[in-house]
Amino acid sequence: MSETILKLQDVAVFQKENLILNDITLLVKKGEFVYVIGKTGSGKSSFMKTLYADLPLKQGTGSIVDFNLKSLPEKDIPFLRRKLGIVFQDFKLLPDRNVNNNLRFVLKATGWTDTSKMDKKIEEVLDKVGMKTKGFKFPHELSGGEQQRIAIARALLNDPEIILADEPTGNLDPQTSVEVMKVLQDINQTGRTIIMSTHDYALILKYPHKTLKCDGGKIFEVIQKAV
Ligand SMILES: Nc1ncnc2c1ncn2[C@@H]1O[C@H](COP(=O)(O)OP(=O)(O)OP(=O)(O)O)[C@@H](O)[C@H]1O
């Protein structure tokens, strides 16, 4: 039986006092791939931020990977984040250190201490995104697509059950977007749940998945037309 990994009931999303989205009731099962689409300013990022507790859940109830978003104390947010892999449009790699040290930084910050275990893990995640030979490169020595692969590798370090990707291909050309998307598809095929916000309809048509649309302060599922 498929497990629920995200459950929202009558949720409202706020930016400060401003209501951005209302009446969100949603179930996502383990292993699903879900797109979140919508015009600029429709609330996609605000929705994603609510899922990783960057915005507090003030109204309605919600749980993600067994964390209750409604009553989540500030001190528990780092524990939730370890169960999530978060990928952003602008990669957010640390510019002053190479790829290996970007990844090592995250491992140390999340409690890893054994050097050989860290090295093994770094090699494993770089291999997953096809970047095994790039560990000694600095971010500025990599293309946008390569930087995004490293950001995805970083998101995989703590074996998250769910990846939240907020416009991961937003800064990439169409061909590179497809390459990054293939990486996300492979990760999804290994059983991980992916929620990805995007503007890229070409990707959605090429890789059809359940699609939620933010519009007029609501989120609803849309049925994709076959091309
Ligand atoms: N930090 C903030 N403080 C106050 N309001 C904000 C903040 N961030 C976003 N908003 C507002 O919330 C609304 C939704 O913004 P959000 O970034 O979630 O939209 P989006 O769909 O992700 O847009 P885009 O596609 O441009 O990234 C917008 O009206 C925006 O102005």
TrEMBL record:
InterPro entries: AAA+_ATPase (IPR003593), ABC_transporter-like_ATP-bd (IPR003439), ABC_transporter-like_CS (IPR017871), ABC_transpr_LolD-like (IPR015854), P-loop_NTPase (IPR027417)
Keyword ATP-binding tagged: yes
Domain of life: Bacteria
Keyword Nucleotide-binding on entry: yes
Gene3D superfamilies documented for this protein: P-loop containing nucleotide triphosphate hydrolases
Lineage: Bacteria, Pseudomonadati, Bacteroidota, Flavobacteriia, Flavobacteriales
Domain ABC transporter positions: 6-226
Name of protein: ATP-binding cassette domain-containing protein
Molecular function GO terms recorded: ATP binding
Alphabetical list of Pfam families matching this protein: ABC_tran (PF00005)
Keywords: ATP-binding, Nucleotide-binding
